[in-house]
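Let's practice the habit of predicting before peeking. Look at the sequence and jot down your guess about where helices and strands might fall. Then scroll down.
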Amino acid sequence: MRLNIKPNEHLAVVGMTGSGKTYFVHKLARSVRRLVVFDPKGTLGEDSGWNLTDWNRKTEKLIMSDNPFRVRVLAPIETNQVEAYDAYFEKIYNAGNVIVYIDEAYGVTERGRYGKWLQALYTRGRELQIGVWAATQRPTWIPLFMLSETRWLFSFRLQMEVDRRRMAELMGANVLNPIPDIHGFYYKQSDMVNAQYVRQLGS
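Done guessing? Here is the structure:
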């Protein structure tokens, strides 16, 4: 399977732990020139193969320039994490020409709350050459625009029926069918009528 994902397009990858979603995004991100990874779970460290540098003053200057970078944002030690994350999203919005990967989408929101700059990345980021890639175990726990404003949807194995039904609303009823392969997934691009099944990445 070949995917022609443009740098300013948004995608969502959903699936339970171990279903293959992080591996899938890692493969997609290998050739990304300017990448900011939000790592709320703190699992994409030095030994993860992502080759990321933590966000600091030096990397922030790279983000605001046209230079390449691979930067990680850890969970802020703040009482109001939504506002703390949104300060990063505002800087990315102003920089433009960036792919943002959020490794757990509900980690940057809080009980349905989200920042205005996160929403701006989804609704106006494409014109600024900003692509937002978000992964989540629980698609029902994130704001709907993080799914509805995406051009590409990928659904791996989901544990909860309510999450499978949320994805069926967006991708079609066939995503309710069991996924027989350990890293199989359904995908749907906005131009497609129905989601298609893929046994594994590369097949």
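How did you do? The chain has one domain: 11-198.
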